[in-house]
Amino acid sequence: MSIYLKLIWAYLKIGLFGFGGGYAMLSLVQNEVVKNGWITNQMFTDIVAISQMTPGPIGINSATYIGYVSTGNVLGSIVATLVVVLPPYLLTLYASHYISRHSDSTIIKGAFMGLRPVVVGLIASAALLLMNKDNFGIAGSTENLISIALCVASFCTVYFTKIHPIFVIIMAGIAGFFLF
Predict the structure, then answer these.
(1) Which has fewest Cβ within 10 Å: 17, 81, 114, 130?
(2) 30 vs 26: CA distance, rounded Å
(3) Cα distances (angstroms) measured from residue 3 to each of 8, 55, 72
(4) Is the pTM of this model over 0.90?
(5) With contact defined as beta carbons under 8 Å apart, do 22 and 48 qualify?
């Protein structure tokens, strides 16, 4: 099967079932692209980090990059990006029309009550997915302890203070430069 057809099939599944945004779809993306051998787990971790720092949604940014890497050309980027965007766009158009007409329906309210905790679970799954040796090093190593300290410090800084996350990202990059 052509790499483009495989790319379309993989990102069609991601686009159709990636409820909850980019972080919620990370486990889907990782499963599809690493399983197909397009990238390694280390590359996936790097793509997530880069996608978080670049403007735009993480799912689209990663699709664009993975499309390029898997095919070796810009056409792969375009295909992966369009395929991951098109299904949610069409579903959103249809769903918004349907939901606005039936917003008082107990079925619609029930569906959203069921989807909310699933989205939180998918985002938590993405967090756990990124807690791997590629991000934290070998357990017990100095690199691992520094990575955990940076992770906890970043979380606490963003969660407990009014400091903007962009500042935390910049400071973590500077700290990483000097520490590693």
Answers:
(1) 114
(2) 6
(3) 9, 27, 10
(4) no
(5) no
